[in-house]
Design goal:
single chain; alpha+beta; Alpha-Beta Plaits; 5 helices; 35% helix
Length: 152
């Protein structure tokens, strides 16, 4: 069920999207409300499930992961492993950052990070291509990426 947000809730969420670690005092200063009012609203947004958690974002490049590749994976036909087995195996690979089960030409889209192209080739050949059920793979090296917050 969708939760109706007013302008104050959206303002609070915009501030938290920029820095999820801020407390009610800092958020209140940023949006121009009292700290207790912001705290109550943040609590209500958490209770309603609008705020599902706060997380730390680690800069991939700062950790030495300079290459991001998006893979399209089509599972092999009959007699091979199914989606559940594939998902279980692919989630065990630390370089795989995102697994999406999709409709379309491919069955899965994966976001894979690597230190460089040679490292990506190693991950692809030794880990991803050997996964149960893998049929076809398409690789797209990400040149740039811009992420937007969800609509408020």
């Amino acid at each position: 069920m969708a939760v109706d947000l007013d302008d104050w809730d959206r303002a609070i969420l915009r501030v938290l999207l920029d820095d999820g670690g801020l407390g009610a005092k800092a958020v209140a200063a940023a949006v121009g409300m009292s700290q207790p009012a912001v705290w109550r609203r943040m609590r209500a947004l958490e209770t309603a499930g609008v705020i599902a958690g706060r997380r730390v974002t680690v800069d991939r490049a700062a950790r030495g992961y300079g290459v991001t590749v998006v893979l399209g994976v089509k599972l092999a036909g009959r007699g091979r492993a199914g989606p559940a087995e594939f998902e279980r195996a692919v989630l065990a690979i630390p370089e795989v950052q995102l697994v999406q089960h999709v409709l379309g030409v491919y069955d899965y889209r994966l976001r894979v990070v690597a230190r460089d192209i040679a490292d990506f080739e190693r991950v692809l050949r030794r880990r991803i291509m050997t996964l149960p059920g893998v049929g076809e793979i398409e690789s797209n090296v990400v040149l740039s990426e811009r992420e937007r917050p969800p609509p408020l």
